[in-house]
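Researcher: I'd like a candidate sequence for this fold, 203 residues long. If you have to choose between options at a position, lean toward the conservative one.
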């Protein structure tokens, strides 16, 4: 085993919400052959990517995360709208934003990222609350005919949610995870290497 691991800090997606998103992907994937979709078991919200971390530092880093989230109560998140990066032109990353609970998530991310920065992990970009659903395949500079526009993507998601109005689109955030990303031919495998629990919900 390597002395370092490719690490990131994340919060989980509820299983029922993963199922909802997976159903959308199954329905839409044939329409977008130019997109590589994320397997439902890999769906998450990244708070910060860390790069290579010494395995011997995982316990101390987890303890630092526990200190940073101490006293922050559990809260609920809800799916928002479909979006993309960039927002105009041909999307490279397809995602879903966060609706309910976004402010609480931003506050949690600020705490976590400040702690990580104090341990030498400087963020390479501002935090944007989103769930990555798919990425455009590398076409060697050629335009992919299967790549959706941002408008296609938003319209698709709104239509799907409206037809599944009784499906759960909210979930509870109860912990922050230190994750290892193991790259492979079939895509990455994610393994939790540490957890920092939030406080019980207020009231």
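Model: Candidate sequence:
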């Amino acid at each position: 085993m390597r002395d370092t691991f490719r690490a990131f800090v994340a919060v989980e997606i509820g299983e029922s919400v993963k199922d909802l998103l997976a159903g959308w992907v199954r329905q839409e994937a044939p329409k977008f052959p130019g997109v590589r979709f994320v397997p439902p078991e890999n769906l998450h919200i990244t708070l910060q990517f860390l790069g290579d971390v010494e395995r011997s530092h995982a316990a101390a880093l987890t303890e630092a995360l526990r200190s940073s989230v101490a006293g922050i109560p559990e809260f609920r998140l809800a799916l928002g709208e479909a979006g993309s990066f960039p927002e105009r032109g041909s999307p490279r990353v397809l995602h879903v934003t966060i609706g309910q609970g976004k402010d609480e998530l931003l506050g949690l991310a600020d705490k976590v990222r400040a702690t990580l920065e104090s341990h030498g992990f400087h963020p390479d970009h501002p935090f944007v609350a989103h769930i990555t659903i798919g990425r455009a395949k590398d076409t060697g500079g050629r335009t992919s005919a299967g790549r959706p526009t941002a408008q296609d993507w938003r319209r698709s998601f709104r239509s799907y949610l409206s037809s599944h109005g009784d499906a759960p689109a909210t979930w509870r955030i109860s912990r922050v995870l230190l994750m290892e990303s193991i790259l492979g031919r079939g895509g990455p495998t994610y393994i939790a290497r540490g957890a920092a629990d939030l406080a019980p919900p207020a009231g």
